[in-house]
Structure formats: C-alpha cells, structure tokens
Amino acid sequence: MKQIKTGWQKEKDGYVFYEQDGSVKQGRQYRQLPDLNAPKQWYLTEDGKMLTGIQQWQGSYWFFNEDGTLHKKRDYVKSQWGSYYMVGENGQVLSGVQKWQGTYYYFEPATYLLANKQEYVKSQWGTWYMVGKDGKLMTGLVDWQGSKYYFDPSSYMKVTNTDVTVNGVNYHANANGILSEIKATTSYGGDYSKYQPNLCNNTGHDSFAISQIGGSINGYIYEQGTYGSHAQQAKNNGWRFHTYVWMQTGSNQGQTQQMLNYFLPRIQGNKGSIVALDYEAGASGNIEANTDNILYGMQMIKNAGYTPMLYSYKPYLNAHVNVGRVLGEFPNSIWVAGYQSGLSVTPNFGYFPSMDGVAIWQYSDYGGQQDLNVDLTGITWNGYR
Questions:
Q1: Contact yes or no for 332/308 (Cβ under 8 A)
Q2: DSSP H or E segment with residue 276
Q3: Where are the beta strands (DSSP E) in 5-127?
Q4: Is the pTM of this model over 0.70?
Q5: What per-residue confidence (pLDDT) applies to 41?
C-alpha cells in the first residue's frame, strides 16, 4: 500500500505542505501551519508549495525568509531574482521615502527599486525632496535643471524666501527656491544702547542699526528703554534694524535660556534679522563650557527664526571661547570689535583684528561717542532682502 505524504515534505523545487489526506490546497494562501522545526507558524503557499523571497499578497508585496517565515525587521534584502528591496518591520516591501542607516532614501512607487537618477520627487506624505543618483535624499547646495537650490540638512526640504550662506558665498532663495548669489556690498551702520538715544549717521552712508534690547547679568534680566525708539527711528530712516543682547551668563545655560525666553518674543527686527549675543564679560574659566553656553544661545536664536551672531573683541574671544567650534556650527557669524586710531568715519583695514569668520567689524568708537561698524559679507541684509 502506497504511503500518503502529509505535512511538510522537501521536494526538488522546495517544501510542499500536504494535508492529512495527502492532498495540497490549490491557489495562493497565507496559512498558519506547523513550523518546520516545531510550533505553528504562518506561511504563504501556492498549490501547497512554501513561497520565499518577494511575494505578492492582498495588493502588497512581502518578503519571506528561506525558511518561509515573514521577515520582520527593517532591512534591505536581496530578492530571488537578484535585485534589492527595502522591507519594513512588518515584512512589507516599502516604497517612497524611507529611513535606512541614518539617512533617507527614495524607492520608486511603481517598481519598489531604489531610485538611480537625480529627480525631484513627491513623498508618500505629500512633501517634495531632491533625490540623487544613489537614491539618497540630497541636502545642501544642489544643481537642478540649470539652477541652484538649497535643501535644509535637517528637514531635507527646499528652502524658499530666505538667505543662505554656503562655503562663504551668500545666496537668496526666491519663492521657488532658485538661488541667486548676493554680491557683497559694503554697508555701514552704528550700534546703540541707552547711551545713544538717537540714531546717528556719522559715516553719511549708514544703512543699518543694531540696538541693545537688554541683557542678563548673572541671571538678572534688564531691559533697554531706548530699544523700541531705536526700532522706530530705523524704520523712519529706511534702515535695516537688528538686535543685540548683553550676555553676562558665563557658562550657565539656564540663565541664557531664561534670558532668551524673555527677549526673543520682544524682538522688533524682521524675522531673519540679526540677534547677536554680546559676550565680553563674566566668562567662566572653562573655555568649552563657555562655548557650549554660547552655542546653546545661538541655536535658540536660530530656532526662533533669526540670524545668530557672536559679538566680542578678539583677545576676549581667544581667551574664553573656542571660536572654531562656533564657526563650525555658525559660519561667518562673528561681529568683532577692534578700534582704529583717530576719528575717521571710514574703516582703516590696517587695524583689522584678523580672525576667521568675521562678518561685521566694529572699527571705531568715534572718540567714545558712537560705535561704527562695517558689514563685510552682506549679513545685515538678512531679513530685509
């Protein structure tokens, strides 16, 4: 009498499951069956044969391991025909924008394959991204169809209606994200506190003003009563208005947070305008802790939608701050003081306090009457272009 095959049997083209009566179920089915090694497991079968690799089921594609079990971790897997696919935690083959190994890739919705050409694509949630030839989402400066664009390294999205600086070159992104280079033009302006109630124009060519809003002295917050008046005078003059904050908080990030939480909602400059941290007193003896505190404050300013800068004079910065770290996170963000002799209202670059990353030079205090500044990069246009 011929013996009936039951259960899993290894055939020449793989495992086949035979019912108790020796028959096989016809068609494609996802069934809970005895595991090859013991307890029950779910398998996709067709005419009883165990299916492995990439398989279609109920309108989607899934990846099954060599033993027939569903692959249940995010993975980039090789199919039975040699091409690779991205699989999610539930075993489903994925398409669109997907995270993998610390970055993001784009998989074509029609083929599920990794993109292999540069293109601007719409994600599964509706936002658009630039994809490179390696399938990765692109960030930074990107050339596309004869124009330049900038894609934010944090959000991966195209920036619009804002200024960006890449490798020391300033660009403006229009409403479509197309970049045009901003040619640096020399601009002059003063910085002001309560000691100068009225804006001056000592150079005869001033086009911006930077006013102190107030500050923190070891946690004690004070305001400058002239700040609002300065903002209105600058507007009346048609000048670009910017802000600085006295930061005598040493390495205390809690005091810096308290200070900026108080002042950032009170900024009267345009979004994108400069908010500078005036760090010239109260530094701790720990250079890296001071730098951590400064970077914490600059990031808060950036997160609030303004352009962060660090103001001080060269000897103080060199003694108390790791300027290289500051410039690593915020290139060309230094506003440095270094006074020339005499009462000339034009800068004499023989007195320039040479250091990296200087965007504004405060070149004179005009005999103690008025601080004079020259914009070296066009940064004072931020928020006003």
A1: no
A2: strand 274-278
A3: 7-11, 14-18, 28-34, 40-46, 49-50, 53-57, 60-64, 75-78, 84-87, 96-100, 103-107, 119-122
A4: no
A5: 86
